[in-house]
Amino acid sequence: MNDLLSHDALGQAELIANGKTSPAELLEAVIARAEATNPALNFIAQPLFDRARHAATGSFSGPFAGVPFLVKDLHMHIAGERSGEGSRLWSDYRPTYSSTLYERFVAAGLNTFGKTTTPELGLTVTTESRATGLTRNPWNHAHSAGGSSGGAAVAVAAGVVPIAHASDGGGSIRCPASACGVFGLKPSRGRVPVGPRLTESWLGMTVNHAVSRTVRDSAALLDAVHGMEAGSRYTAPEPEGSFLNNVTREPGRLRIALMLEPLSGSPVDPDVLAATLDAAKLLESLGHQVEEAAPTLSNDELGAAMTAVVGACTAADIAARLHALGRDDAGDDIETIPQMWVHIGKQTTALQLIAANEAYQRAAIVMAEFQTTYDIILSPVFAQPPIELGRIDLSPPDLAEWTRTLLGYSPFTALANQTGQPAMSLPLGMSRSGLPIGVMATARYGDEALLFRLAGQIERAAPWAGKRPPLP
Predict the structure, then answer these.
(1) What is the Cα–Cα distance from 295 to 369, expressed in whole angstroms?
(2) Is there a domain that residue 91 lies in?
(3) How do 183-186 and 140-144 pair as beta strands?
(4) Is residue 469 part of a domain?
């Protein structure tokens, strides 16, 4: 790998600040790496190379001054640039405004040179779509890279960028981080802006942050972009000090609940169980107290709530797009599963949405009470190693089989979205077939600082930086 690209994002910014490289030189190295790896992996949805080259001739400020960056092509708008949303229905959509978070990325010094692939409207935990094709796992091209931020995780795993924007409504930061063997942290509800036109999505389940190679990059980026936006209904508690400083602080002796079975009772693959148990042993060796425990929650109630929310929001999004286009029907411009969600959404009542919101609140209270005893909940991310491509794409021939496969594959991650808690995927395991397995840690609402302290401790004890897929 090019020496410039072997550094994390803070390291690249330091090279620029010390005059050892320039934003333009670094950008060309990154673009060359992207062009060498993207044909096989397919992680770029919208190249913005010329835009970034023009920006690289100017000046930058902020903690990542001049560092090349990728944003996800889903609800992350750059004024005048195409926002494809992973969908043919948005193929010609060019917003006239930029997302609040994008503007904060710019203020942090990041130079965006492209947008990464996502499934249509982020509606599955793999990154496969009719609009942009199959995004492939860099460890095995026949397998999924996870989703919906799969393109972002592939770009980081493939050594193109050390950090990339990602978003998470049911696991979409942690799932691709797990599948590709990188670090991914989902922040607390209200921590990072989603505006400017709206201040929440999916009743607050959707949040934005990043996947990264190192913990410190993730922390420094969250320092740069977090904080209340205009009109927010809520905001996460302000941290004490910076998130970055927490990475090098010891977490103290933590009491950790080991949750090996999902609420659904779906079976967990032996390789995933082994990786999670190995992580538990590592934490015990670091002085933490680990014991099997899990909160008591209703999987049926939370599943019904998520169905109501995702269905209603998807139907509303597509209805708004059709109205803007002057059309009555999406036809073949949306895939089978989004069509299903539209149908569900149109049948969802206001009373069902109220019930869903109340179910989420009850779950958040249960989790808060459970975590008066336990600082961290340790669990798998996926219930299986990365799945083969084509198993859970958005145009399945059999909806019932698709649903069974999806729910059996990814039964752990949505809970943190429903309760608003921060959670992270740690790249600690590998399957016997050589595919990455992430282990998830969930903290109390608003306590990303503890996750960064724990992640920093684990990264020092069991470094993952040298684990790279076999790419050119």
Answers:
(1) 9
(2) yes
(3) unpaired
(4) no
Q: Which two tokens stand for residue 311?
A: 């269905």
Nearest CA to 86 among 399, 390, 334?
Answer: 334
Catalytic residue among 83, 87, 129, 172: 172
**What is the pairing mode between strands 255-258 and 376-380?**
parallel
Cα of first residue to Cα of last residue in the chain, in angstroms, is 8
Given a cut of 80, is residue 27 above it in pLDDT? yes
209 in any annotated domain? yes
Model confidence, pTM: 0.97
CA distances from 128 to 41, 236, 400 (A): 12, 33, 19
pLDDT score of 240: 84
The type of residue at 240 is E
425 membership: H or E segment, kind and range: strand 423-430
What average pLDDT does the segment 453-459 reach? 98
Helix, strand, coil in percent for the chain, rounding step 5 = 40, 15, 45
At 100, the pLDDT band (50, 70, 90 cuts) reads very high
Q: Among the options 99, 148, 149, 218, which is catalytic?
A: 148
Residues 6+ apart with CB under 8 A from 112: 48, 51, 52, 68, 69, 70, 71, 78, 102, 105, 106
State mean pLDDT over 391-407: 95
Compute the distance between CA of residue 286 and CA of residue 279 in angstroms, rounded to an integer: 11
pLDDT of residue 93: 97
Catalytic site includes residue 72? yes
Share of the chain above pLDDT 70, in %: 100
Q: Are 128 and 390 in contact (CB under 8 A)?
A: yes
Which region holds residue 165: left if phi is over 0, alpha if psi is between -120 and 50, else beta? beta
What CATH number is given to the structural domain containing 91?
Answer: 3.90.1300.10
**Element of type H or E holding 116:** strand 111-116
Which strand (E) or helix (H) includes residue 133? strand 133-134
Tell whether the model's pLDDT for residue 203 goes beyond 80: yes
**Is 148 among the residues known to form the active site?**
yes
In the residue annotation, 115 being an active-site residue is answered as no
**Do the Cβ atoms of 377 and 441 come closer than 8 Å?**
yes
DSSP conformation letters of 53-66:
HHHHTS---STTTT
Query: Is pLDDT above 90 for 260?
Result: yes
Residue 213 lies in a domain: yes
Domain residues for 100? 3-461
**Total domains, the chain:** 1
Residues 6+ apart with CB under 8 A from 369: none
pLDDT for 187 equals 98
CA–CA gap between residue 280 and residue 262 (Å, rounded): 17
